[in-house]
């Protein structure tokens, strides 16, 4: 192998390794993917629950959880006879390893009538495949999201979780 070919091969390998390291470092703090998160309100709040949060590359967010979902009104232990849709929302980066997010769920009475919305807004820190966050939740009664008839705040709850890996 000539010295020129060796130099070219070395530069190609070095560039590939550098790109791989940069991508791995960048991935370390990216929220994109599916997260299984546990939410635990302080004492006196709703009981702990699990949720899936799906962060998409374009800044959109999808959510579902074990507390307010399509069949939640069937649970006799539920504090409110309500059903909820999946949550839809948005996220943005607010630092190297942090994101800010909001999602909204449609809320229905047990009979299927649209009663209002559940809005969740929070921040989270991403460290590799691990999540720590905090979000505030409020139930907005009325069909006008921007002008609800009544607002019930549930307060702020911490959360932790991890990324679902392939």
CATH architectural group of the largest domain: Beta Barrel
Report how far apart the termini are. 40 Å
Strand order of the largest sheet: 1-2-3-5-6-7-8-9
Structural class computed from helices and strand pairing: alpha+beta
Oligomer: single chain
Kindly report the average pLDDT value.
Answer: 85
CATH topology of the largest domain: Lipocalin
H and E order: HEEEEEEEEE
Beta-strand content: over 45%
Task: Give the tally of β-strands.
Answer: 9
Helix content: 10-25%
Number of helices: 1
Number of domains: 2
The rough form would be described as: globular
Mind telling me the C-alpha Rg?
21 Å
Largest beta-sheet details: 8 strands, antiparallel, barrel
Tell me the name of the CATH class of the largest domain. Mainly Beta
Unreliable runs, pLDDT <50, ≥5 residues?
5-26
Chain-wise SSE layout:
Elements: H1 3-27, E1 33-39, E2 49-55, E3 60-65, E4 82-84, E5 87-93, E6 98-109, E7 114-127, E8 130-141, E9 150-163
Antiparallel strand pairs: 1-2, 1-9, 2-3, 3-5, 4-6, 5-6, 6-7, 7-8, 8-9
Tags for this model:
166 residues; alpha+beta; Lipocalin; 8-stranded antiparallel β-barrel; globular
Report on the architecture of this protein:
The protein is of the alpha+beta class and 166 residues long. The protein has 2 domains: 1-30; 31-163, Lipocalin (Beta Barrel), CATH 2.40.128. Helix content is 15%, strand content 49%. It has 1 helix and 9 strands; from the N terminus they run αβββββββββ. An 8-stranded antiparallel barrel has the order 1-2-3-5-6-7-8-9. A hairpin with a 4-residue loop joins β6 and β7 (114-127). The longest helix has 25 residues, at 3-27. The protein starts with a helix and ends with a strand. The model is unreliable at 5-26 (pLDDT under 50).
